[in-house]
Amino acid sequence: MANVITHEDGNTFVAGGLTFNFINSNYKEHKTTDSEIVVLKSADILRSYDKVFDAAPNKNFLEVGIFEGGSTLFFAVAHPEFRISALDIRDPDDAVLRHVHNLGLKERVKIHYNTSQSDKDALEKIIREDFSGEDIGLICDDASHNYNLSRSTFELTFGKLARGGQYCLEDWAWAHWKSTSSTSLALTNLVFEMVVLLPSTRPLIDSIEILPNYVRLVRGPGKTNGDVNIDSMMRLRGKKLTLI
Ligand SMILES: C[S@@+](CC[C@H](N)C(=O)[O-])C[C@H]1O[C@@H](n2cnc3c(N)ncnc32)[C@H](O)[C@@H]1O
Fold it and tell me: In whole angstroms, how large is the CA radius of gyration of the chain?
């Protein structure tokens, strides 16, 4: 909740007795230590997630993309009623794991390193084991921001959300930022596909909210037979979306 942040000074803030440092450039030069946790979301963005947690229909949260542990640890202290399962392709990070241990979070916060967001078997196992076979209330994809990888995560996990479940795709707009020089396929392509899926799959997706920092989908009551298959589910009248 918002008032978990007890002190703010520039990019540094304190929550649950932990000091967080919001980094917005030269990410790779910053490491979480025992005294300070590196986070790639500002205090305001983290606060903006309060309404997403509040709207989640159950207390199971899957976070894709851990980096130096900042958002995972923040959400763990801000939303103590949630079970959190987080994964990242990185090697295990002792400082992050030490925080989880020292805060007594090991039962409630499960961290999976060396795990790709597109690894179907790994995702299925993590979801099954960490959430005891229950549906998920909230999924946040803040990992590669790569169109194909994020698309896989969406296809593999969206169907596992409970009705009313929240799906957030972070930093979808990177291709349109002034600072962007990458010529990779834009994550925007996935957003276009999500928009087409809404009417095509009704009532699988109840709504899509497009915000500058993230896109939020709400899971409708429609059923899937497992994974969501974007290509076969979009009704495009024989036409194709052009990738940008
Ligand atoms: C934007 S950072 C996450 C920031 C973190 N959520 C925060 O707010 O502090 C993205 C993370 O995604 C991870 N990542 C990149 N490609 C990935 C993949 N294919 N599967 C899983 N994680 C990946 C990176 O290793 C990196 O740690």
Answer: 18
